[in-house]
Amino acid sequence: MKRILITCIGGHFSYQVVRSIQKTKKLSKFILGVDVNPNVNAFFVDKFEPVPRADLSMLKYVKKIIYLCKKYKINTILTSSENETLAISKYIKLFNKLKIKTAVSSFSTVNLMRDKLKMFEHLHSSNVDVGEWKKIDNFNDAENALNYFGYPSNTVVIKPRFGSGSRGVLIVNGKKNSFTHLLKDRFCGEGSWEAIKEELKNSNKSLDNCFAMPYYGGETFDVDCIAEKGNLILAVPRLRVYQNPLSPINQGCIVGPNKDIHDYCKTLVKVFKINGACDFDIVIKKNMNPQLLDSSCRLSGSVGASLIAGVNVTAELIKMMHGKK
């Protein structure tokens, strides 16, 4: 029986993650939920504790997590955000010393996957197909990249190197005369280059540390993966059925096998040397080849969606972490 700590318990689908653990007999008798928001409704866990923000101080965050692990005799940690995963991976030796299992890869791996530009460069140098991209640091760079990718005939995506949840993602579409905000609680949207440029200036935002890539527009999958020392153990593709292409939460999906995506994930996991949980966003291009859009070295927030298809990714991850089949 495991005593489990789950981070970001205030997330949209945290209940499903907890439920997936509770559904498995003899897996856990205690679940501690933590979150930076002290006011989250964490009724579905056995105990809740607030924690400091990992992006402000990794050390303060890790010290609080270790304190809680000792207080509640935690032996398993599941992270649900990039910054928390990075913090725990940086101090992984402390957790290993305390015999606390974590679902995170090495610090170098997590740090690489966090920087989307370096991630693409690394995969390209390892002969993995990740398409084309152009580094952007200002408006002139953006215009050169747009010309290179054939705008306005072709739609182009501009993304920040660092970030998550579609923050800062811009779809440059020559057919859209005005700028449309695609999410209410964060800056991202779609419009022509002129409309986007005007919106950026009005919002006092820059294009520093960004990159551009083609907008592929094909079927897009969220793929929940479990890996052990660079070997893919499990991959569950979930075809997105979204009304908003930039939605940071699952708006609907179809779960099913896909050999091309499975083989592509197998290569990604090996090149990244992933050990534990990971999540890939993959699109099928017009030539029917898979193309990586984004990745994270942790469980997807919507991993519980696979339960409907009879695949308990969270439970399988915990079993693997503790050496079970």
In short:
With 325 residues, the chain is of the alpha/beta class. The protein is built from ten helices and 16 strands. The strands form three sheets. It has a six-stranded mixed β-sheet with strand order 6-11-7-8-10-9, with helices on one face. A five-stranded parallel β-sheet has the order 3-2-1-4-5, with helices on both faces. Strands 14-13-12-15-16 form a five-stranded antiparallel β-sheet, with helices on both faces.
Q: Strands, helices and their partners?
A:
Layout: E1 2-6, H1 14-22, E2 28-35, E3 47-50, H2 58-72, E4 76-78, H3 82-90, H4 92-97, E5 101-102, H5 107-114, H6 116-125, E6 134-136, H7 139-148, E7 156-160, E8 170-172, E9 180-181, E10 189-191, H8 193-202, E11 210-214, E12 220-228, E13 231-240, E14 253-255, H9 259-272, E15 276-284, E16 290-296, H10 313-321
Parallel strand pairs: 1-2, 1-4, 2-3, 4-5, 8-10
Antiparallel strand pairs: 6-11, 7-8, 7-11, 9-10, 12-13, 12-15, 13-14, 15-16
Helix pairs in contact: 2-3, 3-5
